[in-house]
Amino acid sequence: MTGRLNNAQPYALGLFRIVIGLLFACHGAASLFGVLGGAAGGGTIDVGTWPGWYAAVIQLVGGILVLLGLGTRAAAFISSGSMAYAYFKVHQPEALWPMENGGESAAIFCWAMLLFVFTGSGALGLDRLFASRSESGDKEDADAKRTPVAA
């Protein structure tokens, strides 16, 4: 049983990454474009407003990159930091616990994104596709350097 679960781990991580990326991008889209209920109960955030507009851009772009599994570690690192800032600067001054200060989503997104910094994209990500292409390209380059050229 453990062997099967271990074999499925990259796929479970990949699916988790896709879901978290989609939800994170939806938060950004709601704040920037007013879709899915908009920001804070409706509407959008004014362009350039600190920190909300910048956080929404990070959520949208970071969420899409994590969803696709493209530059996952870097996108997740920035996204995690953004959510840590959101929790400690916006939510935590209201009350200590996330249940009291409304910071549950910021805390969960922060820790989920931090997990991707250490695990990478898992299966089903574009990171793996590009990594396998570059590895095969590196092999071909190394083979070409070792093979003598006949005139």
Write the layout of secondary structure elements.
Elements: H1 2-33, H2 52-68, H3 72-91, H4 98-101, H5 104-119, H6 126-146
β-strand percent reads under 5%
What is the makeup of the main sheet?
A: none
Radius of gyration: 20 Å
Structural class label: mainly alpha
What does this structure look like?
The protein is mostly helical and 151 residues long. Helix content is 73%, strand content 0%. It is built from 6 helices and no strands.
Q: What would the keywords be for this entry?
A:
single chain, 151 residues, mainly alpha, 6 helices, globular
In short:
With 151 residues, this protein is mostly helical. It is built from 6 helices and no strands.
